[in-house]
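Sharing a chain and its predicted structure for anyone who wants a worked example. Both blocks are below, sequence first, C-alpha coordinates second.
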Amino acid sequence: MIAFAEPETKLVPSYAGRIQKLTDTISASRLGAWQQCRLKFWFRYVEELPKPKAPALLLGSAIHSVLQEWNLWRWEEKATDLNRLEELFRSLWAEAVEEGGDPEVANLGWSMLDTYIRQSAIPFDEKPEAVEVKIESDLTKHGLPNLVGVLDLVRPGGRIVDFKTTSRTPDPRTAAHMYQVQTTCYALLYRENTGEPEGEIELHHLVKTKKPSVVVVPVKPVEQVQIDRLFRLIDSYAEGLQREDIIPSPGFQCASCEFFAECQRWS
Protein backbone atom coordinates (compact mmCIF):
# COMPACT_ATOMS: atom_id res chain seq x y z
CA MET A 1 0.00 0.00 0.00
CA ILE A 2 1.30 3.42 -0.89
CA ALA A 3 1.43 5.84 2.03
CA PHE A 4 0.58 9.37 1.01
CA ALA A 5 2.10 12.24 2.94
CA GLU A 6 -0.28 14.51 4.75
CA PRO A 7 -0.82 17.76 2.83
CA GLU A 8 1.15 20.68 4.21
CA THR A 9 -1.02 22.99 6.26
CA LYS A 10 -0.50 26.64 5.43
CA LEU A 11 -0.96 28.85 8.44
CA VAL A 12 -2.94 31.98 7.66
CA PRO A 13 -2.14 34.77 10.10
CA SER A 14 -5.07 36.12 12.11
CA TYR A 15 -5.66 39.82 11.64
CA ALA A 16 -8.69 39.96 13.94
CA GLY A 17 -6.95 42.23 16.44
CA ARG A 18 -5.84 44.75 13.82
CA ILE A 19 -9.26 44.74 12.16
CA GLN A 20 -10.91 45.42 15.51
CA LYS A 21 -8.65 48.42 16.11
CA LEU A 22 -9.37 49.71 12.60
CA THR A 23 -13.11 49.54 13.26
CA ASP A 24 -12.98 51.01 16.78
CA THR A 25 -11.94 54.35 15.31
CA ILE A 26 -11.95 55.82 11.82
CA SER A 27 -10.14 58.72 10.12
CA ALA A 28 -10.53 60.61 6.86
CA SER A 29 -7.25 59.21 5.53
CA ARG A 30 -8.29 55.61 6.15
CA LEU A 31 -11.69 56.20 4.59
CA GLY A 32 -9.95 57.68 1.53
CA ALA A 33 -7.68 54.64 1.22
CA TRP A 34 -10.68 52.30 1.56
CA GLN A 35 -12.54 54.16 -1.20
CA GLN A 36 -9.53 54.13 -3.51
CA CYS A 37 -8.76 50.41 -3.31
CA ARG A 38 -9.69 47.92 -0.60
CA LEU A 39 -6.78 45.64 -1.40
CA LYS A 40 -4.31 48.53 -1.08
CA PHE A 41 -5.97 49.39 2.23
CA TRP A 42 -5.49 45.79 3.39
CA PHE A 43 -1.80 45.73 2.49
CA ARG A 44 -1.16 49.07 4.19
CA TYR A 45 -3.29 48.95 7.33
CA VAL A 46 -4.00 45.29 8.05
CA GLU A 47 -0.93 43.41 6.84
CA GLU A 48 1.16 46.55 7.51
CA LEU A 49 3.58 45.79 4.69
CA PRO A 50 6.58 48.14 5.02
CA LYS A 51 7.15 50.45 2.06
CA PRO A 52 9.40 53.48 1.59
CA LYS A 53 7.68 56.84 1.28
CA ALA A 54 7.04 58.03 -2.26
CA PRO A 55 9.06 61.14 -3.29
CA ALA A 56 5.88 63.24 -3.43
CA LEU A 57 5.00 62.23 0.13
CA LEU A 58 8.49 63.10 1.34
CA LEU A 59 8.16 66.59 -0.12
CA GLY A 60 4.65 67.03 1.25
CA SER A 61 5.78 65.96 4.72
CA ALA A 62 8.71 68.41 4.78
CA ILE A 63 6.53 71.28 3.56
CA HIS A 64 3.85 70.44 6.10
CA SER A 65 6.38 70.51 8.96
CA VAL A 66 7.61 73.99 7.95
CA LEU A 67 4.05 75.34 7.68
CA GLN A 68 3.28 73.89 11.08
CA GLU A 69 6.27 75.74 12.53
CA TRP A 70 5.15 79.00 10.89
CA ASN A 71 1.63 78.60 12.24
CA LEU A 72 2.96 77.90 15.74
CA TRP A 73 5.05 81.09 15.58
CA ARG A 74 1.93 83.09 14.81
CA TRP A 75 -0.01 81.32 17.56
CA GLU A 76 2.81 82.25 19.98
CA GLU A 77 2.78 85.77 18.47
CA LYS A 78 6.38 85.53 17.26
CA ALA A 79 7.68 87.41 14.23
CA THR A 80 7.98 85.51 10.94
CA ASP A 81 11.59 84.83 9.97
CA LEU A 82 11.78 83.44 6.43
CA ASN A 83 15.50 82.70 6.76
CA ARG A 84 14.90 80.42 9.73
CA LEU A 85 12.04 78.69 7.92
CA GLU A 86 14.29 78.08 4.92
CA GLU A 87 16.98 76.61 7.18
CA LEU A 88 14.37 74.31 8.71
CA PHE A 89 13.13 73.14 5.31
CA ARG A 90 16.63 72.44 3.99
CA SER A 91 17.48 70.51 7.15
CA LEU A 92 14.31 68.42 6.79
CA TRP A 93 15.00 67.85 3.11
CA ALA A 94 18.54 66.65 3.84
CA GLU A 95 16.94 63.95 6.01
CA ALA A 96 14.40 63.19 3.26
CA VAL A 97 17.21 62.67 0.75
CA GLU A 98 18.48 59.81 2.92
CA GLU A 99 15.02 58.22 2.53
CA GLY A 100 15.04 58.55 -1.26
CA GLY A 101 14.19 62.19 -1.84
CA ASP A 102 15.71 63.97 -4.83
CA PRO A 103 18.46 66.46 -3.81
CA GLU A 104 17.55 68.61 -6.82
CA VAL A 105 14.08 69.27 -5.39
CA ALA A 106 15.36 71.35 -2.47
CA ASN A 107 15.23 74.70 -4.27
CA LEU A 108 11.80 74.00 -5.76
CA GLY A 109 10.46 72.91 -2.38
CA TRP A 110 11.60 76.09 -0.68
CA SER A 111 10.27 78.16 -3.58
CA MET A 112 6.85 76.57 -3.04
CA LEU A 113 6.94 77.47 0.64
CA ASP A 114 8.22 80.99 0.07
CA THR A 115 5.50 81.62 -2.51
CA TYR A 116 2.82 80.24 -0.21
CA ILE A 117 3.81 82.25 2.85
CA ARG A 118 3.93 85.46 0.82
CA GLN A 119 0.75 84.85 -1.22
CA SER A 120 -1.55 82.71 0.93
CA ALA A 121 -3.58 85.69 2.18
CA ILE A 122 -2.92 84.70 5.80
CA PRO A 123 -1.58 87.83 7.52
CA PHE A 124 1.73 87.38 9.33
CA ASP A 125 0.16 88.74 12.53
CA GLU A 126 -3.03 86.63 12.42
CA LYS A 127 -3.19 84.41 15.51
CA PRO A 128 -4.66 80.95 14.80
CA GLU A 129 -7.36 79.37 16.94
CA ALA A 130 -5.52 76.03 16.77
CA VAL A 131 -2.49 74.43 15.11
CA GLU A 132 -2.03 70.72 14.39
CA VAL A 133 -4.64 69.72 16.94
CA LYS A 134 -5.60 66.06 17.43
CA ILE A 135 -9.29 65.69 18.18
CA GLU A 136 -12.03 63.06 18.31
CA SER A 137 -15.75 62.95 17.61
CA ASP A 138 -18.01 60.40 19.33
CA LEU A 139 -20.12 58.74 16.64
CA THR A 140 -21.09 55.73 18.77
CA LYS A 141 -24.52 57.28 19.32
CA HIS A 142 -25.02 56.74 15.58
CA GLY A 143 -23.82 53.13 15.82
CA LEU A 144 -20.51 54.07 14.19
CA PRO A 145 -16.82 54.05 15.21
CA ASN A 146 -15.29 57.10 16.84
CA LEU A 147 -13.94 59.60 14.34
CA VAL A 148 -10.39 60.84 14.92
CA GLY A 149 -8.33 63.39 13.02
CA VAL A 150 -5.80 66.21 13.03
CA LEU A 151 -6.67 69.74 11.95
CA ASP A 152 -3.67 71.43 10.31
CA LEU A 153 -4.83 74.93 11.13
CA VAL A 154 -7.94 76.70 12.40
CA ARG A 155 -8.09 80.39 11.55
CA PRO A 156 -10.23 82.94 13.43
CA GLY A 157 -13.93 82.40 12.88
CA GLY A 158 -13.60 78.62 12.80
CA ARG A 159 -12.08 78.57 9.30
CA ILE A 160 -10.46 75.15 8.95
CA VAL A 161 -7.38 75.02 6.71
CA ASP A 162 -5.92 71.89 5.15
CA PHE A 163 -2.60 72.03 3.27
CA LYS A 164 -2.01 70.10 0.07
CA THR A 165 0.89 69.84 -2.37
CA THR A 166 0.10 69.04 -5.99
CA SER A 167 1.80 69.02 -9.37
CA ARG A 168 -1.30 70.34 -11.17
CA THR A 169 -3.37 73.46 -10.70
CA PRO A 170 -6.60 72.22 -9.11
CA ASP A 171 -10.07 72.95 -10.44
CA PRO A 172 -12.04 74.38 -7.49
CA ARG A 173 -15.24 72.45 -8.18
CA THR A 174 -13.41 69.15 -8.66
CA ALA A 175 -11.24 69.69 -5.57
CA ALA A 176 -14.26 70.42 -3.37
CA HIS A 177 -15.86 67.18 -4.56
CA MET A 178 -12.69 65.06 -4.29
CA TYR A 179 -12.08 66.07 -0.69
CA GLN A 180 -15.71 66.03 0.48
CA VAL A 181 -15.14 63.09 2.84
CA GLN A 182 -12.18 64.85 4.42
CA THR A 183 -13.87 68.23 4.80
CA THR A 184 -17.00 66.62 6.26
CA CYS A 185 -14.86 64.75 8.79
CA TYR A 186 -13.11 67.97 9.76
CA ALA A 187 -16.43 69.79 10.18
CA LEU A 188 -17.78 67.09 12.51
CA LEU A 189 -14.56 67.09 14.54
CA TYR A 190 -14.70 70.87 14.91
CA ARG A 191 -18.37 70.90 15.90
CA GLU A 192 -17.98 68.10 18.44
CA ASN A 193 -15.05 69.81 20.17
CA THR A 194 -16.22 73.43 20.13
CA GLY A 195 -20.00 73.17 20.18
CA GLU A 196 -20.01 75.70 17.33
CA PRO A 197 -20.49 75.35 13.55
CA GLU A 198 -17.33 75.57 11.47
CA GLY A 199 -16.68 78.55 9.25
CA GLU A 200 -15.57 78.15 5.65
CA ILE A 201 -13.21 75.24 5.06
CA GLU A 202 -10.14 76.21 3.01
CA LEU A 203 -8.07 73.82 0.91
CA HIS A 204 -4.68 75.51 0.46
CA HIS A 205 -2.87 74.02 -2.53
CA LEU A 206 0.87 74.56 -3.02
CA VAL A 207 1.29 73.87 -6.72
CA LYS A 208 4.61 72.27 -7.68
CA THR A 209 5.36 73.79 -11.08
CA LYS A 210 8.49 75.54 -12.40
CA LYS A 211 7.00 78.75 -11.10
CA PRO A 212 5.13 77.67 -7.95
CA SER A 213 1.68 79.05 -7.29
CA VAL A 214 -0.94 79.02 -4.57
CA VAL A 215 -4.58 78.05 -5.09
CA VAL A 216 -7.01 78.37 -2.19
CA VAL A 217 -10.27 76.48 -2.69
CA PRO A 218 -13.02 77.64 -0.31
CA VAL A 219 -15.60 75.03 0.72
CA LYS A 220 -18.92 76.03 2.23
CA PRO A 221 -19.87 74.76 5.71
CA VAL A 222 -21.01 71.16 5.64
CA GLU A 223 -24.70 70.37 5.17
CA GLN A 224 -26.73 67.43 6.51
CA VAL A 225 -26.74 65.59 3.16
CA GLN A 226 -22.93 65.42 3.28
CA ILE A 227 -23.02 64.11 6.85
CA ASP A 228 -25.53 61.44 5.81
CA ARG A 229 -23.24 60.36 2.96
CA LEU A 230 -20.25 60.20 5.31
CA PHE A 231 -22.15 58.08 7.83
CA ARG A 232 -23.18 55.66 5.08
CA LEU A 233 -19.56 55.39 3.96
CA ILE A 234 -18.31 54.74 7.50
CA ASP A 235 -20.98 52.07 7.99
CA SER A 236 -19.96 50.38 4.72
CA TYR A 237 -16.29 50.57 5.74
CA ALA A 238 -16.89 48.97 9.15
CA GLU A 239 -19.09 46.19 7.79
CA GLY A 240 -16.81 45.47 4.83
CA LEU A 241 -13.68 45.31 6.94
CA GLN A 242 -15.26 43.01 9.51
CA ARG A 243 -16.30 40.68 6.65
CA GLU A 244 -12.82 41.03 5.10
CA ASP A 245 -14.60 42.01 1.90
CA ILE A 246 -11.35 42.86 0.14
CA ILE A 247 -11.09 43.33 -3.63
CA PRO A 248 -8.66 45.21 -5.91
CA SER A 249 -9.74 48.27 -7.88
CA PRO A 250 -7.64 48.29 -11.09
CA GLY A 251 -7.24 51.66 -12.77
CA PHE A 252 -4.80 54.39 -13.77
CA GLN A 253 -3.78 54.77 -10.12
CA CYS A 254 -2.13 51.31 -10.22
CA ALA A 255 0.88 52.67 -12.12
CA SER A 256 2.09 54.55 -9.03
CA CYS A 257 0.86 52.12 -6.36
CA GLU A 258 3.56 50.88 -4.00
CA PHE A 259 1.76 47.54 -3.68
CA PHE A 260 1.66 46.79 -7.41
CA ALA A 261 3.78 43.62 -7.11
CA GLU A 262 1.78 42.32 -4.16
CA CYS A 263 -1.45 42.97 -6.03
CA GLN A 264 -0.21 40.97 -9.01
CA ARG A 265 0.38 37.98 -6.72
CA TRP A 266 -2.87 38.33 -4.80
CA SER A 267 -5.53 35.65 -5.12
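Comments welcome. The radius of gyration is 21 Å.
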